[in-house]
Amino acid sequence: MKLTKKQKLIYDWLISKPGYLKKSADKLCEISNLYGSLKDHEIALKEARSDSKKVNILVTNQPNSKDNGIISISKNIKSFGTEYHPKDVAFKEKFNKDNVIFIADLHAPHILDGYLDWCKELQIKYDCGTVIFSGDIIDGGAWNYHEKNPDSLGVKDELYAAKEQLKVAYKLFPKATVLLGNHDLLISRKAKTIGLSQKFIKNLSTILDAPKTWDFVHEYKKDNVLYKHGAIGDAFKAAVESRISTCQGHFHAKSFVQWSVSEKDAIFGLQVGGGFDRDQMAFDYAKPFHKKPIISCGLILDKGHTPIVKIMPL
Fold first, then answer.
1. Distance of alpha carbon 106 from alpha carbon 229, whole angstroms
2. CA distances from residue 219 to 146, 185, 246, 248, 264 in whole angstroms, order as listed
3. 287 burial class (0-12, 13-18, 19+ CB within 10 angstroms)?
4. Cα distance between residue 161 and residue 32, in whole Å
5. How do residues 27-63 score in pLDDT, each as one tens digit?
């Protein structure tokens, strides 16, 4: 069943708090604080109850066993196909740190369904022990500098929905480095605009309830490869100008690996596109563009020597 944005918000809230599936719609309407109508709660509750019967969403962490800590399974965390069993996948976190998975801009709460699961499959297949997100992990459409669509989510609802959606990422990738993108920095920029000291602003990690094992940084360097969100030029242009292999996000309609070889060195630029749903209202501005977002992910293997771009099959 196709849910409205408000119903989807309630649905995601119910999936994240399965204990509430036993309550009535009118009771949920009182306690959910999502400002949906009774009808919205009835529809979302019916859909969430139906999906909860298809997948096991009640598996929780077991604190006293090294072999536990199973991720919960929801509609947004699909099983990993016949090759992988969700329990086995969730436990394998001791991957090769010399291999990096570079996950594209998420723009939560607009992450494309199945994208994070696909990235997890790639992490397992290519044994990637270092997880780096390219930035713009949140969208911030409700608090950016552009004209607002009156039908889009407000600040409170968008932030809540983003945090709920990112819980999937936290469980699939318990340890990660996040490169701060221009959308991630909107909150800080807004504070400067009104003359508010940064001392009054929480860091993004706190705002998003991120695990302490997630580091939020502007740039990251590993094995002589520079990782950053990007701003002006794409990854290859940045690599050529700095003569250091560079991995970037930011440019959603670009995704590639390109090499430059000189007398002294061989460097590459690796560009990833995005991991978001372009059909969401937040991206209406891009609909007239001929170029569309490329849903992709980067792999930098063998201590920075083997760059690969994977395009998600849609």
1. 12
2. 26, 14, 11, 10, 25
3. exposed
4. 13
5. 887 776 666 788 888 898 888 888 776 544 333 333 3
Residue 182 identity: N
Quickly count: other Cβ atoms within 10 Å of residue 289's Cβ. Answer: 11
The per-residue pLDDT for range 269-300, each reduced to its tens digit, is 999 999 999 888 788 877 788 889 999 999 99
The per-residue pLDDT for 232 is 87
Q: How many helices (H) and strands (E) does the chain have?
A: 9, 11
Contact by Cβ (8 Å): 304, 225: yes
Coil, helix or strand for 27?
A: helix
Q: From residue 7, give the alpha-carbon distance in Å to each of 24, 41, 42.
A: 15, 7, 9
**Exposure class string for 20-31: b at 16+ Cβ within 10 A, else e:** bbebebeebbee
* End-to-end Cα spacing for the chain: 20
Task: Yes or no: say if 309 and 272 are a contact pair by the CB < 8 Å rule.
Answer: yes
- pLDDT tens digit sequence for 119-134: 999 999 999 999 999 9
Q: Positive or negative CA dihedral for 269, 239, 232, 220?
A: positive
Q: How many CA atoms lie within 13 A of 308 on its CB side?
A: 16
225-272 pLDDT, tens digit each: 999 999 889 999 999 999 999 999 999 999 999 999 999 999 999 999
